[in-house]
Amino acid sequence: MRNRQTSGSRSATGSSSGTTAGTAIVLALACAPQFMVVLDISVVNVALPSIQRALGFDEAGLQWVVNAYALTFAGFLLLGGRFADLFGRKRIFVLGLVLFSGASLAGGLANLSSLLIVARAVQGLGAAVLAPATLTVLTTTFSEGTARTRALATWTAVGIAGGTAGNLVGGVLTEYLPWRSILLINVPIGAVAIFLASRFLMADRGRGSRRRLDVAGAALATAGLASLTYGIAQARTYGWSAPVTIGALTAGAVAVALFVMVEARFARAPLIPLRLFRSRALSAGNVAMLLAGACLNPMWYFLTLHMQKALNYSPLQTGLGFLPHTLVAIVVGARVTPWLMRHVEGRTLIVAGALIAAAGFWWQSQITADSGYLAGILGPAIVFSVGSGLLNTPITTTVTSGIDAADAGAASGLMNTTKQFGGALGLAVLVTIAGSHLATPDALAADYGRAFLTIAAILVAVAAVALTLPGQRDGERRRAVND
Description:
Largest sheet: none
Keywords: Cell membrane, Membrane, Transmembrane, Transmembrane helix, Transport
InterPro entries: MFS (IPR011701), MFS_dom (IPR020846), MFS_trans_sf (IPR036259), Sugar_transporter_CS (IPR005829)
Oligomer: single chain
Subcellular location: Cell membrane
Structural class: mainly alpha
Transmembrane segments: 21-48, 60-80, 92-111, 117-140, 152-173, 179-201, 213-232, 238-260, 281-302, 322-341, 348-365, 371-391, 421-439, 451-469
GO molecular function, one term: transmembrane transporter activity
Helix content: over 70%
């Protein structure tokens, strides 16, 4: 694999000395769309009041500016991941960019609420195609060892930065520009990425001519995950016992059960080959990813509310308040963790990172309305950002290690699905645990404190799951050190 990739990189760049430049461009191509995809999960939050005033949304309809993206993103991730395997990584990567950028343009120009919701849904579809493709491009370009670890560390850090920057970018753009800018900003970035991908990504034919897409499995997986995500979203609004919640969750569970049966007994070209789960690294790693997503994605929601409602920060001040989280996580994730992974087992780093992050969230759970920024936000942020920076890359590396290139897209789609579904499930559960006291800053701080304490407990469970992961073989460790 290494020789083939090096040869391809030389042909793309024109010389052996250009190999590094060629792979650097591939890395940038994978990271920029990943940043956009993660950014658009949160960037609209700050702009929602402006969107509501401009397009006349009512309170019930406004949530679909967020949910239309989240539902299609989570629901189509498995299908999007398999597309890259069957039809070629480059082709699907470009298709995802075109869908995402085109939908961003349509949403930015929308003059009706219904058009904006449709555009956000298509954006989510583009993200579901694009997100696993970015990871597949990395895992098939960089061989296992130091090169892949560094690439995945950068990709992970960019994803963290995108999640954090969403509030800051949304706050800045909404403060100084029309709300449409939060969507239109994706268009020039996407256009540049399409141009560079067309020029620098190696063409691959995929296996579409030899294997058909698992249509039944795709329909069941998409319907199941979309129904489950919809049910979880409704639980936040109507409660877990509401008929709409129970109906959606039941339908989703039935669809997922049928999906497993179809994949195991009937599919000739399974969307997710169940043999992949024989890998303890993939199966246990995805459980750890599910739990980590249930913690690290929802924390932004509660921190944003705490800063705006309990500390009375403006949207721009809230975005700036997240800068330490971003900087610490990027430095630890992109610089410190790759170096540590050359000397320490991945599962050890996951355990250590989860426990450090748990300690940070326990500290965060002690907040009061009088805590202030330094003691109530900055101190805990440094601790749990160090922990999250340590565990994210080893989990990603573990889940994608030892996977055949032909199944890289399926594994990437599964990992992204696990993470996004974990975030949706975690947020719904944590909102329920936090309660609904809205009277005073003290009551709000107590509510958010319960959520952060629950996050700490879930991270301890992540550490326990990580202990079941396979250890790094001595030969792999020596190769990583010597690369």
